Amino acid sequence: MEKSIKSVIKSLEKLDWENLEKVANHNRKLLEYLFNNREIISLFLKNVLKDNTLISLTEHYDFFDKIVLYADKKGRFRIRLHIFSGDPSTKYRPHCHRWIYSSVILRGGYKHFIYGTEDEINESTNIKDIKPIIIHEEKIGSIYTLNHKVFHSIETQPNAVTTIIRGPALKDRFLIIDKKTNKRWHEYGRESETIEEIKRKSIDISGLKKLIEKIYKLKVI
């Protein structure tokens, strides 16, 4: 099984993230493999519990919990597990990302809203004019790859679970727009966050163990 983890990591070390089509094709095969061989995800989780760096990267937000299963030391990619709360606010928060990512739905699903790219949407855009141009239902087993410039939002089922593979950070910050509160703000990578900001989101080892127990109770693995 350790060989399976090593093969997953080795394939990602060679991936050219500048070619979106190659990224999508490669990660589709890899995420299908993880979807059908979930004992590998279980092994990743066991490794997280032995790695203080990965433990420190576990975070809680109002709408989801994030476990970093693997973080490439050169910053080329990360493999993450997301457990969504089902908080309805996510539907009304179009945002882009700092990196390209690919995702597979392991449990549950969500409605996916696509609004456009950074070429059409920015800090000056009238929030009332930001409307979805694509609405798609992502169900268990759904796999997609999203460019970092694309603005999207999701309406998740409670306890929906996904695995994502994200590439290297391509910018320092990304924009979030809240259509309900009519506010917009930028989020930055951890390297730009204060100690207080990091502590506010952090989950300790006890919380991480409870989160992993929840994953098993949900029969994700």
Task: Give the total of domains.
Answer: 1
CATH topology: Jelly Rolls
| Proper CATH architecture | Sandwich
Cα(first) to Cα(last) distance is 15 Å
- SSE succession: HHHHEEEEEEEEEEEHH
Radius of gyration: 17 Å
Weakly predicted, low-confidence segments: none
Strand order of the largest sheet: 1-2-3-9-4-7
Give the arrangement of secondary structure elements:
Layout lengths: L1 H12 L6 H17 L2 H10 L3 H5 L2 E2 L3 E8 L6 E7 L16 E7 L2 E8 L16 E5 L4 E4 L3 E7 L4 E6 L6 E6 L4 E6 L6 H7 L3 H13 L4
Antiparallel strand pairs: 1-2, 2-3, 3-9, 4-7, 4-9, 5-6, 5-8, 10-11
Please characterize this protein's 3D structure.
By secondary structure, this protein is an alpha+beta fold. The chain has a single domain, classed as Jelly Rolls (Sandwich), CATH 2.60.120. 29% of the residues lie in helices and 30% in strands. The strands form 3 sheets. A 6-stranded antiparallel beta sheet has the order 1-2-3-9-4-7. It has a 3-stranded antiparallel beta sheet with strand order 6-5-8, with no helix packed on it. It has a two-stranded antiparallel sheet with strand order 10-11. The model has no long low-confidence stretch (mean pLDDT 95).
